[in-house]
Design a protein that fits this description.
It is built from four helices and six strands; from the N terminus they run βαβαβαβαββ. By secondary structure, it is α/β, with parallel strands linked by helices. The longest helix is centred in the N-terminal third of the chain and has 15 residues, at 25-39.
């Protein structure tokens, strides 16, 4: 399975709550840039898991315009900023198995996205993600390898 973990685009802090923070104009631009890069790596998209927070939902709206149509998209409460990384990793893998997904995209937040990487790839320290950055993980059975991280230009 090819697993792509992406942090949402740059978001404004001007919102009634963390949950309602919106992408900035620059965040939409960066996300579009990264979506083009994702498109060069994804020929099919079996499953998308997205945080229910507005900025993650808006990130998916931008990304979805650049990628093949997802076979299944699920809003997943486990992948919010304060989510438990172990529970979130287990949920991601369970959904991937349930939908027999070979290519999975997860759109989430810091700090959980970094901790997800270390949950999924044994021995790897949690990386820091810039907004709109993504990592690719190649996961087969119990083995997982970190393929690489991609940042928007200018980061």
């Amino acid at each position: 399975m090819q697993l792509f973990l992406m942090r949402h685009g740059e978001a404004s802090f001007d919102a009634p709550s963390d949950r309602e923070r919106m992408l900035t104009h620059h965040g939409r631009y960066q996300t579009g840039q990264m979506a083009n890069l994702l498109n060069s790596r994804i020929s099919q998209l079996d499953l998308v898991l997205v945080s229910p927070y507005l900025r993650a939902q808006q990130t998916w709206q931008v990304v979805s315009k650049h990628l093949p149509k997802a076979r299944k998209c699920v809003v997943l409460d486990n992948i919010t900023p304060s989510g438990d990384p172990k529970m979130a990793a287990d949920a991601i893998l369970a959904y991937a198995q349930q939908y027999k997904a070979d290519t999975v995209l997860v759109i989430t937040h810091m700090p959980i996205v970094g901790f997800l990487v270390s949950e999924l790839v044994a021995g790897l320290e949690p990386p820091i993600f810039a907004t709109s950055a993504f990592v690719q993980i190649d996961k087969h059975s119990e083995q997982a390898s970190f393929v690489g991280m991609n940042y928007p230009s200018g980061v």
